[in-house]
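Suppose you are handed only these lines of text.
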Amino acid sequence: MSAVNSFQSIDTLSVAGTDYQVFRVDRVPGYETLPFSLKVLLENLLRTEDGANVTEAQIRALGSWDPSAEPDTEIQFTPARVVMQDFTGVPCIVDLATMREAVAELGGDPNKVNPLAPAELVIDHSVIADLFGTADALERNVEIEYERNGERYQFLRWGQTAFDDFKVVPPGTGIVHQVNIEHLAKVTYTREVGGVLRAYPDTCVGTDSHTTMVNGLGVLGWGVGGIEAEAAMLGQPVSMLIPKVVGFKLTGSIPTGVTATDVVLTITDMLRKHGVVGKFVEFYGAGVSAVPLANRATIGNMSPEFGSTAAMFPIDDVTLDYLRLTGRSEEQVALVEAYSKLQSLWHDPSVVPRFSEYLELDLSTVVPSIAGPKRPQDRIELSAAKKAFEEVLPSYAPEASTPIDVTVGGESFTLDNGHVTIAAITSCTNTSNPSVMLAAGLLARNAAQKGLKAKPWVKTTLAPGSKVVTDYYEKAGLTDDLEALGFYTVGYGCTTCIGNSGPLAEEISSAIAEKDLAVTAVLSGNRNFEGRINPDVKMNYLASPPLVIAYALAGTMDFDFESEPLGTGSDGAPVYLRDIWPDAAEVQATIDSSIDTAMFDHQYSSVFEGDERWRSLPTPDGATFDWDAESTYVRKPPYFEGMTLETSPVSDIHGARVLAKLGDSVTTDHISPAGSIKADSPAGQYLMAHGVDRKDFNSYGSRRGNHEVMIRGTFANIRLKNQLLDGVEGGFTRDFTQADAPQSFIYDASVNYQAAGVPLVILAGKEYGSGSSRDWAAKGTSLLGVKAVIAESFERIHRSNLIGMGVIPLQFPAGESADSLGLDGTESIAISGIEQLNEGVTPKTVRVVATPSAHSAPGRAPIEFDAVVRIDTPGEADYYRNGGILQYVLRSLV
Ligand code: SF4
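From them, the structure of the protein bound to iron/sulfur cluster can be written out as follows.
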């Protein structure tokens, strides 16, 4: 029972002979016209009301929510569960293991550090498409994955036994968000609390931005940083402001030739233009019931690309059908239906909820699209793709980049700018969607029948998000056709989507380097930021799975599908894309005939067990982890060193120097890259000094359990442009501890600053920290010695992660930037006003004084301005005062 029940909301729901305790939202005035997502939050508050953190006033405020008001009511959201992937999950478990020791050191019981909310981790981010285009590619890639990651996997197996309510889905099973919608999500959650069986909306937070994919099932959830996820696991609510909710009306239906991918690229484009950062988006209208669940999930998946916190669909018959198809029990389906109807969570097209803003898309107007070459919102109509490519090429290819002859495996060809070197069917965004996956399979069949082949310079990969995909390809008889075009399965995991595209053929890679060619990648992913996909590839395009295959056949982005043939058919006639594009009715018929519940039952019945490789990994035991001092994968991080039970006061910042001055749209991938580690970088040097061969470096993402690698990798993205240097790309800065302020690695400079006791500041432009939620972007920033980031605007998760790591996010005054104020980064920075936080007051602004230094141009005057403090909630202020969220949680546990 919740401790307080101000609205007398507790009731009993009986379904098929089982009684469930429920907290009825209809007891709160105003609930009727609340958007779906806010009703879910309303139930959450009713169930967790305790009179202190969750109060009657907050519940009342949510019921009478004013859609047009600027968000200012803080609420505490307690998610039902936490989902994780291995890149972010390993550091979470490392932190929990470290917290256990810290609790013991502070005199508490280490077993208190234990998930209170169930947590599930899917190992999907580590597999790399090293091998491709052969029948043994999958097997070999998994083998190499285990060789590289065995140590991390053993650690996770320890976590699985040491922590209650923490389960791991082993490698080679699927991709976290697809496994979530196909199996983990319950839609209506049940749990015994104090001997009473409760039913409540399934909600989650995930350590991955695309957690929102589950929104398509009517499950409210979104990506949070690893640090917030750890707190959620430990029973801390996620503090948030009641957001604005944008109503997005869907009408019409998708025309022939257009895919779900085209729809999401269109919606992304529309919502980016509208501006939905920090808001919920909710789909409504009669058109909703015509949207298949798989398309809802694909749309939900791209929520971070729109910039919204969540992108919700309501629950209806389509949801129930999907639950049945994917093998959820009849009892569960009945509970979902009864519970959703009782709580007004069932879709009723006749009720238009009150929304903050309204948008509308007639699906029949969507046209085939791609997006690129570096942002998902840069949509291009397919018919204009060639022209668009030609227009941007000059900014990627220097004049000297001319075609070059290459021979690979006995085959010779000429490689040129625009050539597609990677064509990847990848990413849960699309691999979860049978309509686009089967369209790809059917297109492959039609192409293979005509005798077409992928061009020899294209690395062709297929990485399904669950084994069900393989089953339905088999049943539909399409596996051979995909393989005939080179699309062999390379793994069940993220692969190219997260940058694990694996190396290009040596000869191709050196040819690209020799001529500085601007070659391209085409992937069915959701992100294409610079440097993310492959270090050799400058331009990345997002496209639907069938278009990925089409581009593999075309071999270049400099291609017009309308007027140019893909090749010559075996009959000697030219073959155009339109000749092999599968008919929508055939795609639907294939979906209907080749996917069944038995496939899901079969693939998910033993989902946590894993194969022989997983089961035979040695599993350490014990309440605390026995760290291996030699490990280069899993090390005990220093966050709690010297920590005391009492907090020390926060202080103003004096004499700080600028570590980096950055432009707009610096992503978390620029701040903490996930991909490959360069041998001559500080992280590469560290690994070599610890006896790791270059071929075994693995990726930054896989090394997030080792803070030594991660600090050195912070700001190490090869495409980072630090404006303290002229025209230099990569993780470099000027080291102002030296008289001549030479160019230096950012890590090396930070070591000198820390030795000299000089605090650091980052200056940045708009949308700082956009992209994937990545707690290492904040952890690394903090461990480099950065005390404040001053940006024009922040991405939501990264901003809160900075606070979670004790770094204060500050914003330039409205309309101002580092450049408009005249800052060039050579100044010495003082920030005063922070100390008001010690009095329990979060200042709205603090005073920043930038005084010219010996490194600044002579004769400059100091620059002063008031920076806006982006500590947005009282909870965040508590975290900041404690030096970070983990310290806060730890102190409250002891
Ligand atoms: Fe994230 Fe892509 Fe992996 Fe999906 S496939 S979890 S979007 S990296």
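What can we learn from it? The chain has a mean pLDDT of 94. The first strand starts at residue 10 and ends at 15.
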